[in-house]
Amino acid sequence: MKRVPVILTAAALCLTLGLAAGPPRPQAESTSPEFDVLITNGLVVDGTLRAPYRADVAVKDDRIVRVAPAIRGRAARVIDARGCHVTPGFIDLHTHIDRALYFPEHRAPLGYLTQGVTTVVAGQCGSSAWPIFEKAADQVRRFNDEGVGLNVALLVGHGQVRQLVMGMENREPTAAELEAMKALVKEAMDQGAVGLSTGLIYRPGLYAKTDEVLELVKVIAPYGGIYHSHVRNERDKLLEAVRECIAIAEGAGVRANISHFKVMRKANWGLVKEASRMIEEARARGLKITADQYPFRFSNTEPYSPLVPREVWTGDDPGLGTADLRRAFTHLRDAELLDLYAKSTPYVPLSKLHLDFLSALPRDRFVDLVASEVLEGRARGAANGRERALFTARLAKPETAQAIREGVREYIEAVGPENLVIAVAADKSLEGKSLAAVAALRKKTVVDAAIELELAGTLAVPFNMCEPDIEYIMKKDYVATGSDGILPIYGVDLPHPRSYSTFLYKIKQYALTRNAVSLAHAVRSQTSLPAEIMNWPDRGRIAEGAAADVVVLDLKGIAVPSSISNPHQLSRGVRQLLVNGKLVLDKGEWTGELAGRVLGR
After folding, report:
1. Residue 242 in contact with residue 278, Cβ under 8 Å?
2. What is the mean pLDDT of residues 550-572?
3. Taking burial as the number of CB atoms within 10 A of a residue's CB, which of 28, 120, 194, 271 is the most buried?
């Protein structure tokens, strides 16, 4: 006889007893959370000019999916933002971090992340956002494959394009050379660049006439690209430079952004009002002209300036410049030139792509490139023994000493002795004092004090801009925030503090302390406004459907310790930071996430 399986017998027994006759058992509740991150109890500053308001913010994947007074639902991570403000991630409209970001060990730029920066625009001032021996596609692939800590938008640089085609020659391009440059710009745009940048005060950009730049900017117009310009002059000819930028934008039919909008030197303070009027007239005509600004009175990547200007220090013997090195290097064999280059370039060891690029260069172009790299790493001024000896010899002769003192006097008057501030000195009691104060303390003329301090290796910072101009520019609704910062090697050299502090410094100093602008205005200038300038409608807002780049900011805890003499200090106040929905900072500490991506047009 065939045995009845036990399971059937049990089932039959259940039916007999009536145990299966009741209603079906409810399904177990899903354990999958509805949200990835839920930020509760915070005051939202949403990127518009709306006053802060109480709301919860829910994030799923890389999007903000709900903004409401109280959100119910399970989340993988709940952040209690009680006592804090919740803002969009900050967008740095003008950076030079691309050269260091190239290397994997710098892909999490903590100096920017701890300010709340989630997106940067790189490749500014005429230098492309990728090395000269590569293409835009290489940088896009590198960041996408290897990871990057924040979002990056790439610009193609006019100066780099010109150097590839013409070297450093000071002349107009031929028709063929102009076409070659246009082809390089088009190639970059095809590969993911979002626009073109110029640095019209730097070699070789300063050699280009307006028509040349206009023709290249026209190339980006069909792509909806943007033109970022370090204009040709930020001193006494600021108005002419702004006029040129507007004319190029109008002629090419593109958006244009004026980089680090300011005017330098005491005699020129106030010109920004007329420059702003020109921008506003252009905007009234329908042109999309904007600007970015960093909120500091001093400039330069390394803000230190000699108290004795370069041309005064060297006199008739300017020392070895690029042209001198080029002449000296022409007799070297290719292998010797390559060895010099390899010792000078930051991109070592040289990749096959790099070597192929170098081998394809004409001989004179290769010599010029080597000379430029070698010169960049060479000590100048008081740190150069030969130059120092020649300067002190000239200073000892009455006939040349007078010319030196006159040159120093002219420079000091142009900046103002009260605006030249001692940053680093052997005598620490001098740091933070102006040249005028030090001269009075030592009972010397400002000229003699300046020469004495220069020979002692003192580093001074010229405060070339003024606070009224900074505030005037900052209040404009078309001026965004841009650090103009680099990605410093932590603890090395003395970079501008803006690389560590721009965004939180602006909020703390100008919105909270000086009340020059409202908190909402300050946040808008570094969130929705730069997003609008770059044509990213889904970024820069706390709104449903927006990209989940989010800052949880403790306003009372903001600290910006980075200073002129001690710049390598991270800002504090950002409790949590989300990049594309991923928690990148938690309780102010990096989580190890590389959540950024390359942003397109």
Report:
1. yes
2. 96
3. 120
